[in-house]
């Protein structure tokens, strides 16, 4: 009985474990199924959004194509209208040019300035529709013929002018030679006259220079005397100037030496005053200490040492004899 109870308990525990595992798997499967459902819904939503976006893009492309087609048709219509207007204007201009050309040709025919061939074409065209190109072609041929005839006449005239120019030069050659010889003779005469005048001016200048030389030679003695006087006076002035400069330099040196000596004395006196002041302070400190020690004594003695120190400081600051002794000492040192 006990063994059967143990087996039943084990089976019950195993069943409980299986049930718990099944419950856990059920929850996991439920979560997985829910996640799969959400993913499918998300994919479906994304597919629907993509389809809508594709439809919108397709609609936009269709509208864009329709607009492009409309603009293209409008542009083609405008181009056709412009082409028709251009053809119309060109036709009108050609007709106007044809009428003007016909009027000009008729006027030239009346004046007799049109060639026989062009006149025959114009006469044969009466009562007929004459082609503009035919008229232009015949007019150009007529104009070319007239130009060739004009060039031929100009060549003939140029040849005649060349002959006349050659004859004129042959006739003018002796005259030109005679004129050149006369011009050369005149220029030679002018050159010889200018040379003669230059020689005269040169001679006059030389004579004037010689006269000036003689006059200057007469004044050489006076020049030497005057030069000696000027040199002597300038030498005296220079010596006087040099003496004055030397005196000024000596005065400046003495003044500078005195200033340096005075500065040295002042520095020495200042140093003395400082040393005396330090010594007086030391003496006063010693006297104060001594007085402190003798406080209990009845007789009070004056501090003659402090008075003498102050007198020494006063004498160092104001004594003239001390300053003179220091000045003499500095003079000896220098």
From TrEMBL:
<dbReference type="GO" id="GO:0001732">
    <property type="term" value="P:formation of cytoplasmic translation initiation complex"/>
</dbReference>
<dbReference type="GO" id="GO:0071540">
    <property type="term" value="C:eukaryotic translation initiation factor 3 complex, eIF3e"/>
</dbReference>
<keyword id="KW-0396">Initiation factor</keyword>
<keyword id="KW-0648">Protein biosynthesis</keyword>
<dbReference type="GO" id="GO:0071541">
    <property type="term" value="C:eukaryotic translation initiation factor 3 complex, eIF3m"/>
</dbReference>
<dbReference type="GO" id="GO:0043614">
    <property type="term" value="C:multi-eIF complex"/>
</dbReference>
<keyword id="KW-0175">Coiled coil</keyword>
<dbReference type="GO" id="GO:0003743">
    <property type="term" value="F:translation initiation factor activity"/>
</dbReference>
<dbReference type="GO" id="GO:0002188">
    <property type="term" value="P:translation reinitiation"/>
</dbReference>
<dbReference type="InterPro" id="IPR027512">
    <property type="entry name" value="EIF3A"/>
</dbReference>
<protein>
    <submittedName>
        <fullName>Eukaryotic translation initiation factor 3 subunit 10</fullName>
    </submittedName>
</protein>
<feature type="coiled-coil region">
    <location>
        <begin position="136"/>
        <end position="170"/>
    </location>
</feature>
<dbReference type="GO" id="GO:0003729">
    <property type="term" value="F:mRNA binding"/>
</dbReference>
<feature type="region of interest" description="Disordered">
    <location>
        <begin position="54"/>
        <end position="84"/>
    </location>
</feature>
């Amino acid at each position: 009985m006990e063994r059967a109870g143990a087996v039943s308990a084990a089976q019950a525990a195993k069943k409980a474990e299986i049930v718990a595992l099944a419950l856990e798997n059920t929850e996991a499967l439920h979560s997985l199924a829910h996640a799969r459902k959400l993913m499918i819904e998300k994919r479906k939503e994304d597919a629907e959004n993509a389809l809508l976006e594709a439809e919108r893009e397709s609609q936009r492309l269709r509208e864009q194509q329709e607009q492009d087609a409309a603009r293209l048709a409008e542009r083609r219509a405008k181009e056709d209208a412009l082409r028709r207007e251009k053809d119309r204007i060109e036709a009108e201009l050609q007709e106007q040019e044809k009428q003007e050309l016909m009027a000009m040709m008729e006027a030239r025919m009346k004046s007799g300035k049109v060639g026989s061939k062009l006149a025959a074409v114009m006469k044969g065209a009466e009562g007929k529709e004459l082609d503009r190109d035919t008229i232009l072609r015949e007019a150009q041929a007529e104009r070319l013929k007239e130009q060739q005839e004009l060039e031929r006449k100009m060549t003939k005239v140029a040849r005649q002018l060349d002959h006349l120019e050659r004859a004129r030069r042959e006739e003018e050659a002796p005259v030109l030679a005679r004129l050149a010889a006369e011009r050369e003779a005149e220029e030679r005469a002018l050159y010889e006259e200018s040379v003669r005048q230059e020689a005269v001016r040169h001679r006059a200048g030389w004579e004037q220079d010689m006269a000036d030389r003689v006059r200057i030679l007469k004044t050489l003695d006076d020049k030497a005397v005057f030069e000696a006087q000027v040199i002597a006076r300038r030498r005296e002035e220079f010596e006087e100037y040099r003496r004055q400069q030397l005196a000024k330099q000596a005065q400046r040196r003495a003044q500078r030496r005195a200033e340096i000596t005075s500065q040295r004395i002042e520095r020495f006196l200042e140093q003395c005053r400082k040393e005396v002041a330090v010594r007086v302070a030391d003496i006063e400190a010693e006297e104060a200490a001594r007085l402190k020690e003798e406080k209990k004594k009845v007789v009070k003695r004056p501090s003659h040492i402090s008075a003498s120190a102050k007198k020494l400081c006063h004498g160092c600051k104001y004594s003239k004899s001390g300053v003179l002794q220091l000045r003499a000492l500095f003079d000896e040192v220098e």
